C-alpha cells in the first residue's frame, strides 16, 4: 500500500527560508539590511528542477479512517519484471550506454519524459571528449 499525507497548503520556499533564518536568531541580508547575516539569492531553475512536487502520478486516492491520510492506487511493476529491467539498466550503465539507460527508464518509470541532451561530464572527462 502507498499512503499519501495531507500536508496542507503549499509553502513558498522563500517564506520558509526567511522563517528558518529568523528562527535561527539571524537576520536576512538585503538592500534594507546590508549588514544582515544571510542573503537569499534567486538563481532560477536548473535543468530538471520543478516548481512544485507531484506526490502521485495518477489521481487514484481513496480516503482512509484518518481524515489526513489517503491510500493511493498506483501502477506498479511485478518484482520479476522490475528485477529484469534493473539488470538491464545496470548493464547499460556499465557500458556507458546512456541512450539505453534513458529508454529503459522511459519503459519502467510512468511519466518519465526526459528533456534535453544527455550530458555526462564524468564520462566526457574520462574519454577525453570536449
Number of helices: 4
Q: For the terminal residues, how far apart are their CA atoms? A: 47 Å
Strand content: 5-15%
Shape: flat
Mean pLDDT: 86
- Enumerate the spans where pLDDT stays under 50 for 5 or more consecutive residues: none
Q: Tally the structural domains.
A: 2
Question: What is the string of helix and strand elements?
Answer: EHEEEEHHH
The class by helix and strand makeup works out as alpha+beta
Radius of gyration: 22 Å
User: How many strands appear in the DSSP assignment?
Assistant: 5
- Give the helix level as a range of percent: 25-40%
Biggest β-sheet description? 3 strands, antiparallel
- Strand order in space, largest sheet: 1-5-4
Summarize the topology.
Blueprint: E1 2-5, H1 13-23, E2 28-29, E3 38-39, E4 61-63, E5 69-72, H2 79-94, H3 98-108, H4 121-127
Parallel strand pairs: 2-3
Antiparallel strand pairs: 1-5, 4-5
Helix pairs in contact: 2-3
Q: Which structural traits does this protein have?
A:
130 residues; alpha+beta; 12% strand
Explain what the structure shows.
The N and C termini lie far apart (47 Å). The protein has helices spanning 13-23, 79-94, 98-108, 121-127, and strands at 2-5, 28-29, 38-39, 61-63, 69-72. The model has no long low-confidence stretch (mean pLDDT 86). The protein is built from four helices and five strands; from the N terminus they run E-H-E-E-E-E-H-H-H. It has a three-stranded antiparallel beta sheet with strand order 1-5-4, with no helix packed on it. A two-stranded parallel ribbon has the order 2-3. The protein has 130 residues and is of the alpha+beta class. It folds into two domains: 2-72, no CATH class; 79-127, no CATH class. Helix 2 (79-94) runs antiparallel to helix 3. Strand 4 (61-63) and strand 5 (69-72) form a beta hairpin. The protein is flat, with a radius of gyration of 22 Å. This is Nucleotide sugar epimerase/dehydratase WbpM. Residues 1-73 form the Polysaccharide biosynthesis protein CapD-like domain. It comes from Pseudomonas syringae pv. actinidiae ICMP 19096. It holds the Pfam family Polysacc_synt_2. InterPro entries: Polysac_CapD-like, Polysaccharide_Synthase-Rel.
Amino acid at each position: 500500500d502507498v499512503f499519501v499525507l495531507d500536508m496542507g497548503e503549499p509553502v513558498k520556499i522563500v517564506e520558509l527560508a526567511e522563517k528558518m533564518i529568523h528562527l535561527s536568531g539571524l537576520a536576512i541580508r538585503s538592500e534594507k539590511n546590508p549588514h544582515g547575516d544571510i542573503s537569499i539569492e534567486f538563481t532560477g531553475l536548473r535543468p530538471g528542477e520543478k516548481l512544485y512536487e507531484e506526490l502521485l502520478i495518477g489521481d487514484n486516492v481513496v480516503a482512509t479512517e484518518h481524515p489526513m491520510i489517503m491510500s493511493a492506487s498506483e501502477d506498479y511493476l511485478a518484482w520479476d519484471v522490475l528485477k529484469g529491467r534493473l539488470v538491464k539498466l545496470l548493464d547499460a550503465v556499465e557500458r556507458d550506454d546512456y541512450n539505453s539507460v534513458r529508454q529503459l527508464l522511459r519503459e519502467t518509470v510512468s511519466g518519465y519524459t526526459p528533456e534535453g541532451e544527455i550530458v555526462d561530464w564524468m564520462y566526457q572527462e574520462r574519454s577525453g571528449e570536449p
